[in-house]
Structure formats: structure tokens, C-alpha cells
Amino acid sequence: MSRPALVVTGASEGIGLAIAGVFAAKTGHPVMMIARRSEPLEAAARSITDRHGVTTIPLALDITGTDAAQIIETTLAAHGLHAEILINNAGVGLGGTFAGHDEATIANLIDLNVRALTLLTRHFLIGMLARRSGGIINVGSLGGFAPGPYQAAYYASKAYVASLTRALSDETAGSGVHLCVVTPGPVETAFHARMGANESFYRKLMPAMTADAVAHATWRGWRLGFRVIQPGLFTPLLSILMRITPWLLLVPIVGWLLQKRYAVKG
Ligand SMILES: NC(=O)c1ccc[n+]([C@@H]2O[C@H](COP(=O)([O-])OP(=O)(O)OC[C@H]3O[C@@H](n4cnc5c(N)ncnc54)[C@H](OP(=O)(O)O)[C@@H]3O)[C@@H](O)[C@H]2O)c1
Predict the structure, then answer these.
(1) Closest C-alpha residue for ligand 1 atom 15
(2) Is 3.30.479.30 the CATH number for 3-265?
């Protein structure tokens, strides 16, 4: 019989690495850590083994590949493991005007944030339902609560993640399997620089959480059986404001925050 394991995508740095560490330490389960670049991934895996004494299985894999779920499953099986908790964390942002991005860049965002997350969820949910245990944590964003001019495709992708996860958590209620979405506001990682958003107003005006704080909040929310986990104090407050403010007002405000500062001075 196979043993339970954690599977974390995008685990070589940022929020994924922090979640892998906290969940591995709390559960003691072996953790499969996935990212594309093997060097930082191997180093991240070693750091978790050293700190928490758990088995780590680094898997260098682009999860947008069509056979990603099968490769993960086969690698787990080779270690006598199954996915008890899947954490769909890998994601990419995209800052700037929508029309200014080429098709391949937008397609890559949809492939990773939407398609890969959906197919991994489906693949591993089937086994969890059969075992009547475990669950899936999808990493969304505070951005999933509103349209986001200048990060339009990214915000839309996170609205999809929230919608899919909330629907599935309802569909699977009582099955022994738990699904939840985590919706952090800004977090201090390399993510913002990668999408060219460090010049945006929100980076100056909004406080950013640490990845560790997000990981601990995710663990607490998971243990408490929350369907939507909103780390910190600021994030739940903002999400309430975003839900009660009419979009006629909200969307231009979000757009102003996401716009690059030099574009306004222009
Ligand atoms: N940072 C924030 O402010 C913030 C706020 C709310 C939500 N989030 C969400 O939180 C998640 C993690 O964000 P982060 O800030 O930790 O990002 P990050 O620091 O940029 O890390 C991204 C991770 O994903 C991996 N990755 C990227 N593309 C991949 C692919 N195709 N296949 C496998 N792995 C891939 C990266 O490693 P490789 O490059 O080696 O593949 C890296 O490990 C994302 O879903 C993001 O949307 C972030």
C-alpha cells in the first residue's frame, strides 16, 4: 500500500517553498517539490530536508506539458507514495496593457494558471475521492475578486481559480476530500519583478506579506476546513471592500493601482 505525500508545484522559491516547508513540518509527510529549473529546486529541497528532517522529492518538470499529471503520478508511485495533499501553487503574472503582450505570453499564462491547475486538480481528485481522504489547495489571489486593468489576464485567471475551487469544494462536500483556495494580497517574492510590475503604484502603497506568513495562514485555514483562506488582516478587509464596491468605481481604482507610475507621469 502506498504512503501519503504532499505535492507542491512552484516549490523552488516564494510562496510554494514556504508552503512546502510548513506543510512538511506539520504533517511529517514526504514532499514532492516541482519547478522547471533543477538547480534552485534541488537547493530548496535540501533546505527543507535539513530544516524539518522530512523526505523531499525534487521533480524538475514544466507542469504545462500534456503528460505532467502522469509523470507526477508515476514518480510518486516509484517512491511508494500517493498524493494526499496537492498544492497547486505555480503561477505567473503579466503586467502591462493586454494588447501589448504577444499571443505566446498570454497563452503561457493561461496554460499554467488555468489549464495545468485544472488538469492536475482533476487527475489527483479522482484518487482522493476513491480513498476518501486528502485534498487540494489552489493558490488564487486577492486579484481574483475583481477585474484588474493592466494585469487583466492574470486577474481573470485567478477569478477562474477561485470559481473552480469553490464549485468543486461544494461538489465534493461529504466525500472526505477537502478543496480550498488561498487568496493572498501582495507577497514579497520575485513574482512582481518577473511580470514587470515593480513600478506599479500597488507596490508602493500596499503592504506585502512574507511568504512564510502566507504559508502559516494556509496551514491554519486548511486545518480549520476553510474553503477560502485569506491570509493576514488586510486581505480579508480588502476583499470585503472589493465585494461591496460597485465595479464602476472599483475597476478604475484597481487599474490605477496596477498601472505603472511612469505611464501616468508620461
Ligand atoms: N507574490 C504575490 O504577491 C502573490 C500574491 C497572490 C497570489 N500569488 C500567487 O502565488 C503563487 C506563487 O507566487 P510566488 O510569488 O511564490 O511566485 P514566484 O516567486 O515567481 O515562484 C514561482 C514558482 O513557480 C515555478 N514555476 C513557474 N512556472 C512553472 C511551470 N511552468 N512549471 C512548474 N513550475 C513553474 C517557479 O520555478 P521555475 O521558474 O524554476 O519553474 C517557482 O518555483 C502564484 O500562483 C501567484 O499567482 C502571488
Answers:
(1) 191
(2) no
